[in-house]
């Protein structure tokens, strides 16, 4: 299996270095914004967000008039990340010492009367720190008033669980607390984008947050041991269980996520799936009664490996307790999970995250990849593999299967953007022939940000905006390479930007568009140095970086790599099936696209001496033929109206 994305890092060791207060790079960056009333911290898994919160919260308690800190996490297992932590030994002025009595991430229902009562008791008590789940916060809020959150820091971990949707209860709690109290808010997430089209916050509320962003590349490039990360896809036909051993290597420390029971990939019997996978690996030697860890003797060499399964509900608590106590790579070999072992789960020795079936949420994909990207001395490479059903013309729902495949590919494209080093783009003026500085690329015709809002989007929201663009249904049609690059870059992308940021002027939209397109195209390219010059390959073009201009960039499809991936990963028959499925749901040709296609049609007829063929295998020629039919239909409709 060939990786779609393969990134190599410098192993600088910077990610683990600390300052004289014991803060790592990201934590110090966050602490510099400790006086913000509303702070959004976006940083990848394992970057130290939990401890960053501790530093900021303790400063707010000691120096900013905050009386109480409430930490809300999505599930009980993550509460352990906020346990008592000694910070003074590394130079900080105080330790994080929550009272265990007010740690509500304990066994029992999150909406239980006892937990809600304990939450209310905390509000009236002299205690300063409470840890609970998102659910307990929601249920306790119903019995409190907004003013009860005055002089309180409310920290929400895994903030992407919040939504601007009126039906999202956690989002409603957040909005009311922000609007009706003087509470401070710290929102923390490894990925700010959700799997649906609903934003996490409304634009007006999001604008109230100061943002601290620490990207994946900064984190992974600063590791000591991890050298590379690969992301790949393996396509199968039939049942996934028949293909699982093609990608499951039990010599590698692996987290295997089986498909959801209601998904097309599932056999609808999750317990039998676990049994089948174990049978494929080997024979059960014994099961530990205390931990429920399964000892399996492999077929291939009789080696005994340790397997943790988190699918059978009644075993989960015992197994999770064991997993939390792991101290070495020898303590676990394979974890089989369904909905667990994702966000907040810490197994630094994990080398391979293997996921069966398409995941509808880009956030979930990033969380799963994050399980394998911890720095650990037992590995130099981390791998994410997605085992996906290949579309088949005999499938009951070919359209769903095709969409899932295309969305999986877009997820990998986004991850490539997230994992690559960042560049700064500037305008190259008319007589500027100086070479680019390291990390900076000058582009002729490029517009620099004219407002603080555009600058903020570029600095903090670029990956989130790309996620929105890649998830747009119309963008999926661009993946097989049948839309002109100018249509993608000048028509579709600005429309999505305008919808996501309705407050932007047309000038601001264009500035953001140029940056998004330039950043996407350059990161999908490959930069090489020859002599004293640097060149970049972009969609098959070999261009001197010092001669880049905006017109050239706009003529390159930022999804060209997706088409190449599809072409190499599937058969011609499957590729044709994908195209036919997309054609069946074809979007109309807009006025903007028509303006771009008209001169291209003229150019085609001049060069080829004929009309484009609607049955052509060349997707762009086919689109030009569709354009002719589209224009004829318009003329016919106008004639009928005038007749």
Outline the structure in words.
The protein has 643 residues and is an alpha/beta fold. The strands form four sheets. A nine-stranded mixed sheet has the order 1-8-15-14-9-13-12-11-10, sandwiched between helices. A six-stranded parallel sheet has the order 4-3-5-6-2-7, sandwiched between helices. A three-stranded antiparallel sheet has the order 18-19-20, covered by helices on one side. 38% of the residues lie in helices and 17% in strands. The chain has four domains: 12-214, 3-Layer(aba) Sandwich (Rossmann fold); 225-389, P-loop containing nucleotide triphosphate hydrolases (Rossmann fold); 418-585, no CATH class; 588-643, no CATH class. Helix 1 (25-31) packs parallel to helix 2 (49-63) and helix 15 (485-500) packs across helix 16. The chain has 21 helices and 20 strands.
Summary of the model, kept short:
This protein has 643 residues and is of the alpha/beta class.
SSE layout and pairing:
Blueprint: E1 3-8, H1 25-31, E2 38-42, H2 49-63, E3 68-73, H3 113-124, E4 129-133, H4 134-141, E5 152-156, H5 169-180, E6 184-189, H6 203-206, E7 210-213, H7 216-221, E8 228-236, E9 254-257, H8 270-281, E10 282-287, E11 294-298, E12 304-309, H9 316-324, E13 334-337, E14 352-356, H10 362-372, E15 381-389, H11 398-419, E16 424-427, E17 440-443, H12 452-460, H13 462-471, H14 473-476, H15 485-500, H16 506-524, E18 526-530, E19 533-538, E20 541-544, H17 550-554, H18 560-569, H19 572-583, H20 591-608, H21 619-642
Parallel strand pairs: 2-6, 2-7, 3-4, 3-5, 5-6, 8-15, 9-13, 9-14, 12-13, 14-15, 16-17
Antiparallel strand pairs: 1-8, 10-11, 11-12, 18-19, 19-20
């Amino acid at each position: 299996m060939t990786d779609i994305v393969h990134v190599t890092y410098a192993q600088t060791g910077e990610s683990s270095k600390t300052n004289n207060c014991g803060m790592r790079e990201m934590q110090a960056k966050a602490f510099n914004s400790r006086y913000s009333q509303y702070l959004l911290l976006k940083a990848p898994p394992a970057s130290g967000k939990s401890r960053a919160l501790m530093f900021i919260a303790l400063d707010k308690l000691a120096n900013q008039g905050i009386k109480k800190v409430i930490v809300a996490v999505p599930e009980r297992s993550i509460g352990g990340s906020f346990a008592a932590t000694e910070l003074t030994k590394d130079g900080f002025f105080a330790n994080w010492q929550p009272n265990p009595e007010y740690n509500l991430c304990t066994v029992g229902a999150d909406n239980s009367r006892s937990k809600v009562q304990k939450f209310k008791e905390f509000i009236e008590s002299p205690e300063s720190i409470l840890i609970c789940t998102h659910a307990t916060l929601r249920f306790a809020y119903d019995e409190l008033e907004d003013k009860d959150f005055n002089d309180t820091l409310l920290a929400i971990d895994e903030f992407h669980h919040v939504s601007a949707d009126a039906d999202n209860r956690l989002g409603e709690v957040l909005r009311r607390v922000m609007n009706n109290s003087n509470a401070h808010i710290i929102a923390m997430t490894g990925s700010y984008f959700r799997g649906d089209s609903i934003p996490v916050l409304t634009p007006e509320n999001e604008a109230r947050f100061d943002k601290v962003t620490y990207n994946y590349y900064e984190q992974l490039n600063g590791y000591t041991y991890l050298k590379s990360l690969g992301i790949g896809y393996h396509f199968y036909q039939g049942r996934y269980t028949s293909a699982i051993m093609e990608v499951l290597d039990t010599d590698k420390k692996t987290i295997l996520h089986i498909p959801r029971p209601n998904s097309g990939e599932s056999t609808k019997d999750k317990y039998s799936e676990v049994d089948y996978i174990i049978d494929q690996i080997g024979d059960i030697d014994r099961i530990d009664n205390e931990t429920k860890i399964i000892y399996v003797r492999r077929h291939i060499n009789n080696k005994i490996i340790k397997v943790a399964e988190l699918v059978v509900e009644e075993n989960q608590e015992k197994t999770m307790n064991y997993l939390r106590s792991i101290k070495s790579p020898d303590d676990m070999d394979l974890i089989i999970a369904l909905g667990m072992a994702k966000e907040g789960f810490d197994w630094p020795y994990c080398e391979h995250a293997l996921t069966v079936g398409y995941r509808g949420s880009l956030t979930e994909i990033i969380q799963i990849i994050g399980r394998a990207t911890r720095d650990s001395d037992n590995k130099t490479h981390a791998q994410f593999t997605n085992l996906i059903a290949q579309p088949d013309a005999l499938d009951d729902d070919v359209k769903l299967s095709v969409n899932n495949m295309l969305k999986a590919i877009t997820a990998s494209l986004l991850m490539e953007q997230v994992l690559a080093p960042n560049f700064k783009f500037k305008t190259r003026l008319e007589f500027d022939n100086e070479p680019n500085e390291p990390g900076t690329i000058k582009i002729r015709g490029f517009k620099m940000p004219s407002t603080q809002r555009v600058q903020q989007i570029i600095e903090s929201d670029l990956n989130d905006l790309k996620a929105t663009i890649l998830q747009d249904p119309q963008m999926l049609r661009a993946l097989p390479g049948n839309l002109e690059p100018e249509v993608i870059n000048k028509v579709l992308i600005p429309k999505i930007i305008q919808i996501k940021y309705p407050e932007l002027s047309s000038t601001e939209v264009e500035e953001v568009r140029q940056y998004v397109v330039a950043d996407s195209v350059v990161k999908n390219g490959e930069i090489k140095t020859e002599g004293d010059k640097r060149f970049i390959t972009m969609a098959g073009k070999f261009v001197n970086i010092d001669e880049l201009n905006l017109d050239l960039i706009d003529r390159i499809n930022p999804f060209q790599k997706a088409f190449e991936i599809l072409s190499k990963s599937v058969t011609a028959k499957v590729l044709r099936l994908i195209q036919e499925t997309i054609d069946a749901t074809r979007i109309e040709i807009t006025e903007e696209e028509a303006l771009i296609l008209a001169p291209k049609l003229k150019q085609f007829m001049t060069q080829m001496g004929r009309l484009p063929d609607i049955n052509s295998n060349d997707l762009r020629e086919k689109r030009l033929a569709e354009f002719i039919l589209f224009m004829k239909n318009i003329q016919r409709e106008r004639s009928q109206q005038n007749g």
